[in-house]
């Protein structure tokens, strides 16, 4: 998908991997926890279980590959994840300045994530991004369907009072980009240098353009 974008009324961000660099921490913790439950997945392959999905989806995929997980594994792992993020997570480089730029330009901003609100409360507070984004922080877990369904982005647009076609979404996963397309919103893919090439290729299929550095975002949306 290609096409030049003009100044949007709102920019809607995924959270993990776009605003906060949480995925390396989560992936490491997930690898260690699954190994303890009988599934030894190399760290570089962990993302095949988790990127752009839900923890319930991760649990299902892990069980299909032989992990022996208790019924309450998702809740247990969230507690492990939250503790790790609270101590380690940092903002994606350059994103604070980008948010300030958008706010100064009068452009609405919001977050739409498949993750729970409790997780975003931890990561956005620790990284200092919460004040810029509050109250427009939305979890698909509070709506009918997660990404790749468009629910969370359509909800964010409604709460901002902006038509979907006047929004731009920033995503780092193919399922998230598909959610943007389903919502009728252009999508900018964020694919930093450390992203595996196959993931970047899948992402790019659904995006108007792809950036490797968050500081590139303003000029890709016409600012």
Q: How would you explain this protein's 3D organization?
A:
With 223 residues, the chain is α/β, with parallel strands linked by helices. It is 46% helix and 11% strand. The protein has helices at 23-36, 43-50, 55-64, 73-88, 95-104, 117-126, 130-133, 151-160, 174-182, 197-204, 217-220, and strands spanning 10-13, 108-113, 137-139, 167-171, 187-190, 209-211. Strands 3-2-1-4-5-6 form a six-stranded parallel β-sheet, with helices on both faces. Helix 9 links the parallel strand 4 (167-171) and strand 5 (187-190). The radius of gyration is 17 Å and the shape is globular. It starts with 9 loop residues before the first strand and ends with a helix.
Summarize the structure.
With 223 residues, the protein is α/β, with parallel strands linked by helices. The protein has helices at residues 23-36, 43-50, 55-64, 73-88, 95-104, 117-126, 130-133, 151-160, 174-182, 197-204, 217-220; strands spanning 10-13, 108-113, 137-139, 167-171, 187-190, 209-211. α1 packs across α2 (43-50).
């Amino acid at each position: 998908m290609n096409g030049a974008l003009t100044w949007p009324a709102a920019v809607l961000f995924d959270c993990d991997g776009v605003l906060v660099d949480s995925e390396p921490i989560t992936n490491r913790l997930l690898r260690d926890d699954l190994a303890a439950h009988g599934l030894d997945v190399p760290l570089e392959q962990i993302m095949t279980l988790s990127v752009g999905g839900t923890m319930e989806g991760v649990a299902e995929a892990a069980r299909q590959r032989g992990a022996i997980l208790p019924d309450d594994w998702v809740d247990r792992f969230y507690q492990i994840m939250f503790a790790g993020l609270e101590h380690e997570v940092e903002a994606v480089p350059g994103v604070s300045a980008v948010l300030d730029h958008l706010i100064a330009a009068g452009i609405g901003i919001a977050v739409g994530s498949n993750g729970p609100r409790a997780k975003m409360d931890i990561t956005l507070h620790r990284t200092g991004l919460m004040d810029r984004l509050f109250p427009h922080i939305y979890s698909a877990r509070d709506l009918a369907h997660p990404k790749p369904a468009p629910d969370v982005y359509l909800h964010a647009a409604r709460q901002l009072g902006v038509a979907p076609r006047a929004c731009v979404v920033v995503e780092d996963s193919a399922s998230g980009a598909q959610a943007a397309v389903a919502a009728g919103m252009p999508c900018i893919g964020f694919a930093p240098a450390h992203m595996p090439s196959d993931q970047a290729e899948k992402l790019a299929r659904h995006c108007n353009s792809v950036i490797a550095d968050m500081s590139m975002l303003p000029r890709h949306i016409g600012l």
